[in-house]
Amino acid sequence: MFTGIVEEIGTIQSANRGANSLTLQIQCTKVLEDVNKGDSIAVNGVCLTVKDFTTSYFTADVMPETVKATTIHSLQVGSRVNLERAMAANGRFGGHFVSGHVDGTGEIVTVQQRENAIYMEINIAPELLQYFIQKGSVTVDGTSLTVFDVTDNGFVISLIPVTQADSIIGQKRVGDIVNVECDMLAKYIERLLSKKEDKQQSAVTMSLLAQNGFLN
């Protein structure tokens, strides 16, 4: 579990590619302060497991499904990435509940500077739109953000100066593809409502059908 509050910007030192998989070596310092083998670290919002580490980097394997479903496949040597350790039980919770399981990718279609803020419009797959409301939460490349507006094709975010400086999202441009994780609470609510609807529909029983002449 993560919060979407980026702790550090790391740099890709190596990206060893298999046919459909990837092993990353990421240079960093802060997230290594108390790291152990097997720990979870979010890399651009993707939960990865620490394979091994030193005082200056860690490595992580990326399975084929993650390579296919996220922007991880586009990382190159020198790419900068948002990093966050899994949330500590005794720490402050400054963002929102983030699982590190990306729901899809989005394309940045507009970037506008408005005084000290950067407004970004991001288009996403139609099936994800149901999880967005104005002033709701979204995770973009591992950064917890507030939904400023919802459009026909996606959503708008507004980046304050701190976010611009402390994460890679402020450096993104039109045409860039980003990882998007929808609000976990919205997904749970949608699941519960669909289950309730299915249960109501299942009230049609064999006995009811027989009573109304549908069965002999």
TrEMBL record:
<keyword id="KW-0686">Riboflavin biosynthesis</keyword>
<keyword id="KW-0808">Transferase</keyword>
<feature type="repeat" description="Lumazine-binding">
    <location>
        <begin position="97"/>
        <end position="193"/>
    </location>
</feature>
<dbReference type="Pfam" id="PF00677">
    <property type="entry name" value="Lum_binding"/>
</dbReference>
<protein>
    <recommendedName>
        <fullName>Riboflavin synthase</fullName>
        <ecNumber>2.5.1.9</ecNumber>
    </recommendedName>
</protein>
<comment type="function">
    <text>Catalyzes the dismutation of two molecules of 6,7-dimethyl-8-ribityllumazine, resulting in the formation of riboflavin and 5-amino-6-(D-ribitylamino)uracil.</text>
</comment>
<dbReference type="GO" id="GO:0004746">
    <property type="term" value="F:riboflavin synthase activity"/>
</dbReference>
<feature type="repeat" description="Lumazine-binding">
    <location>
        <begin position="1"/>
        <end position="96"/>
    </location>
</feature>
<dbReference type="InterPro" id="IPR023366">
    <property type="entry name" value="ATP_synth_asu-like_sf"/>
</dbReference>
<dbReference type="InterPro" id="IPR001783">
    <property type="entry name" value="Lumazine-bd"/>
</dbReference>
<dbReference type="InterPro" id="IPR026017">
    <property type="entry name" value="Lumazine-bd_dom"/>
</dbReference>
<dbReference type="InterPro" id="IPR017938">
    <property type="entry name" value="Riboflavin_synthase-like_b-brl"/>
</dbReference>
<keyword id="KW-0677">Repeat</keyword>
<comment type="pathway">
    <text>Cofactor biosynthesis; riboflavin biosynthesis; riboflavin from 2-hydroxy-3-oxobutyl phosphate and 5-amino-6-(D-ribitylamino)uracil: step 2/2.</text>
</comment>
<feature type="domain" description="Lumazine-binding">
    <location>
        <begin position="97"/>
        <end position="193"/>
    </location>
</feature>
<comment type="subunit">
    <text>Homotrimer.</text>
</comment>
<dbReference type="GO" id="GO:0009231">
    <property type="term" value="P:riboflavin biosynthetic process"/>
</dbReference>
<feature type="domain" description="Lumazine-binding">
    <location>
        <begin position="1"/>
        <end position="96"/>
    </location>
</feature>
